[in-house]
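Supplementary Methods. Inverse-folding protocol.

Structures were first reduced to a discrete structure-token string of length 72. This string, shown here, constituted the complete conditioning input.
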């Protein structure tokens, strides 16, 4: 049986705009595009699980006000 942390190779088709954003994020952070993708999926899973349990996601603005993040 495969280890849960064993890498699995995938192929994804991204619109050019998202691919460019991926590369930009990776370059800004000094990491690989693969790392950005892994973290994005992990973050999405975390938010999805929290929302499923009834939690809300909030953004604190510079003025210390809060905005609820609405997601599909």
């Amino acid at each position: 049986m495969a280890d849960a942390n064993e890498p699995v190779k995938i192929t994804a088709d991204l619109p050019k705009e998202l691919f460019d954003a991926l590369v930009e994020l990776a370059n800004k952070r000094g990491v690989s595009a693969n790392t950005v993708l892994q973290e994005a999926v992990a973050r999405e899973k975390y938010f999805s699980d929290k929302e499923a349990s009834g939690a809300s996601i909030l953004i604190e603005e510079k003025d210390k006000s809060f905005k609820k993040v609405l997601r599909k």
